[in-house]
Amino acid sequence: MEKKQIAVIHGPNLNMLGAREPGTYGATSLSEINESLRRKAKKNNAEVQIFQSNHEGEIVEAIQRASGNCHALIINPAAYTHTSVALRDALLLLDVPVIEIHISNIYKREAFRHKSMIADVVTGQISGLGSAGYLLAMDAAVEMIGA
Ligand code: DQA
Fold it and tell me: Each residue's pLDDT tens digit in the chain (147 positions)?
């Protein structure tokens, strides 16, 4: 049986996890998160395609590539969560489960972070559970797509 494909997209500044505001985002680096995601996918007989960019257009293109090429998408758009109509429009291309994840609880932070431009076009959202949220997102994806 073909392995289910789960796309993971990380937005701007997430390449600095571990060094970046550890009080807010924790000590785990992005490569550690990606390694745990790969391990979990393998256990579930699925494959992950992981992408990170600090550029909005590149993230739009990654979402476009994911469209038609994955069974689920996990995305942390980081700061673009709060600003990007382009990301929102791109996500509307997908007809597979999309999980929005934030390491911090965006609703407990500054008012400008309370608004997610994508919350109403994704399947569900995880916010505030730390980097473990990525693994919980993968659990949910696996459950939904039956990997
Ligand atoms: C974030 C929350 C955003 O508000 C912020 O701009 C980020 C990370 C999170 O994972 O908690 O860069 O998406």
Answer: 689 999 999 999 999 999 999 999 999 999 999 999 999 999 999 999 999 999 999 999 999 999 999 999 999 999 999 999 999 999 999 999 999 999 999 999 999 999 999 999 999 999 999 999 999 999 999 999 997
Structural domains for the chain: 4-145 (3.40.50.9100)
Q: Ligand 1 mean position to 115 CA, how many Å?
A: 12
Q: Compute the distance from residue 2 Cα to the ligand 1 centre, in Å.
A: 34
One-letter amino acid of 11: G
Which residue in this structure is represented by tokens 């000590």?
Answer: 27
Residue among 32, 44, 9, 3 nearest 122 (CA): 9
